[in-house]
Amino acid sequence: MLTSLVEDIYDAAIDSARWADVLAKVVDFVGGQAGGIVSKGSAGKSGNAHYHFGMNDRYLQLYAETYWKFDPVAASSICQLKQVVSVPDLVPYDEFRGGRFYHEWVRPQGWVDAANVVLEKSATDCVYLSVIRGESRGMVDGEMRGRVASLVPHLRRAMRIGKALDRKKLEAKTFAETLDGLSVGLFFVDAEARVVHANTAAQDILGANDFLRAMNGRLVARDLQFDQALREVFAAAERGDAGSGAKVVALPLHARDGEHYVAHLMPLAAGARRRPGAAYAAAAVFVHRAALESPSLSGAIAQTYQLTPAEFRVLHAIVEEGGISEVAHALGIAATTVKTHLRHIFEKTGAGRQVDLVKLVAGFSSPLAG
Q1: Distance between CA atoms of 140 and 145, rounded to whole angstroms?
Q2: Tens digits of residue pLDDT in 180-229
Q3: How far apart are CA 100 and CA 317, in angstroms?
Q4: Final residue before a domain boundary, out of 273, 289, 305
Q5: How confident is the model at residue 273 (pLDDT cuts 50, 70, 90)?
Q6: Both 214 and 314 in a single domain?
């Protein structure tokens, strides 16, 4: 029975919803009637049962609201004690029976004593196990103390494991929320192009079913060059190139409505996938919309490359409209004038092709969702 109970205790460390059932088994094993895992403020300013078994909800509420202040355990220096203690260890029992806590909270429930032991403590509070004995069982005895003591190392270890897992879950949740705060679409994909994770912006891109889609969980694009680049990135990741300075690949993508996007493909380190059966991401795919909607963005680009107003208008039109003839028509100027401005833009930015200008604009876009 002890071996099975210890296994259950560690299961509760992984899944805190199991603690109520585990406490039921603990209470039965040590010979109690009810029990709880209770927190106590180190300054004696609070008391709360986090997990419990065999306790009446109304009395729990009364305890949290009022009676913890009169509980000799909560009012004692139990946080400084390492051994299993009962009520007579903390206060003379006749004094306990004459108090308000006993007459208004303990006695109405048919209880007489409790075995208590600290499981963890900090500068602000401590958490302890309390297993209560009823009139039919009598006072806490040596056998009960011994059984409680046999469980304490496992309970303490399980509490530490649970807290560590909670921190990891919080870190993962915070990480996911941070990614969802980006306006840039971000996909993590495995070596078969299956999407391991997609932030909110990436999910919106897939939902549009346009230049990027998910087919059977695999990231695919209308542009065959994009799919080929993905495979090359995966090959680099499989070779372990990510750890030795693998380059980020930037590729243009075009939506049906003519909007321009840029995808940056980055191989990721291979460490996690070395574990058999472990899910991992082989590459990260960042998708930017190449647009000049923000005045601050436009100003930053113009200032960075010292573009004249006319040159900047041509750059804007290249991103929004496309080729030279389309830009000439949109701006109402000759194609030769567009070519002259474009040559100057290439010289100032270092770009060699129009598609490089689209990538340049995407690189200036804010990653934060507006």
Answers
A1: 7
A2: 877 789 998 888 888 988 999 999 999 999 999 999 999 998 888 777 87
A3: 82
A4: 289
A5: very low
A6: no
CA gap 351, 234 in Å, rounded: 27
The total number of residues shown for the chain amounts to: 370
Domain with 198, as residue range(s), is: 181-289
Query: Strands 195-198 and 218-221, how do they pair?
Result: unpaired
How many domains, the chain? 3
The verdict on 103 and 216 lying in the same domain is no
Spatial contact of 328 and 338, defined as CB atoms under 8 Å apart = yes
Tell me the CA end-to-end span of the chain in Å, nearest whole number.
58
Q: Residues 302-346: pLDDT tens digits?
A: 888 888 989 988 888 887 777 788 888 888 899 999 999 999 999
Q: Which residues lie closer than 8 Å to 22 by C-beta, 6 or more apart?
A: 5, 8, 9, 11, 12
CB 266: neighbour CB atoms within 10 A? 17
Asked if residue 303 is part of any domain, the answer here is yes
pLDDT at residue number 28: 95
Gap between the Cα atoms of 324 and 353, Å rounded? 12
Q: How far is CA 113 from CA 26, 138, 150, 207, in A?
A: 16, 8, 20, 61
CB under 8 Å to 36, separation ≥6 — which residues? 23, 49, 50, 51, 52, 53, 55, 129, 130
Residue 156 φ/ψ region, left for φ over 0, alpha for ψ in the -120 to 50 degree band, beta for the rest: alpha
By CB atoms closer than 10 A (0-12, 13-18, 19+), residue 98 is exposed
> Taking the model in full, what pTM does it have?
0.53
Per residue in 216-261, pLDDT tens?
999 998 888 777 877 777 766 666 554 444 566 777 888 888 787 8
Please report whether residue 370 resides in a domain: no
Nearest CA among 207, 307, 320, 338 for reference residue 261: 320
From the list 214, 203, 288, the residue with the least C-alpha distance to 250 is 288
Element (H, E) at 252: strand 249-254
